[in-house]
Task: structure prediction
Amino acid sequence: MIKPWTVLNTREVIRDRFITHTIDTCERSDGTRIPTYHVLDLPIWPVTVPLTADGNVVLVREYRHPGKVVMTGLPGGGGEPGETDPKIIAERELTEETGFVPKSFHALGTCYPNPAIQTNQLHIFLALGCEKRTGQTLDPAEEIEIVQMPLSDFEAYEDFDIQHCHHAAALFYLSRFFAKHPDLRPV
Result:
């Protein structure tokens, strides 16, 4: 039976408000030693599928520096220091990045983006009845264009030039939610 590894030693490589990178020395239950295992401790990452009353999805288009790509994706972001409630973070990020405010908010699901090296979880929400109420309040590292598209285009993910795993996960949870709550799906 597979058991969690024993951490024999942890060495911190870097720590700031966005990430902590450690290198662990571990031992498996069978005695096998793993001398170098990199772990990235990141904040929780909520994202939102925002839908307007007329059935458009509100997306953000921005440059993603590590990938060197401009991509269209879901509004979301990591928590600020001290923030632990994914719903509060998701609502704040939605408004900051898009200026849209929803009438109702629904938790869709939670998953790990990459548990092989990352500690954080992705929390996915659905925001219904979104209306533009304010301007964007962007961080210095954000340059965001707002894009709206019909839900059917958003669901045709295979047609996107550049694909994001958060979008794919959100589509899975969204389809499950609408299968259980067809009355909430915009027409």
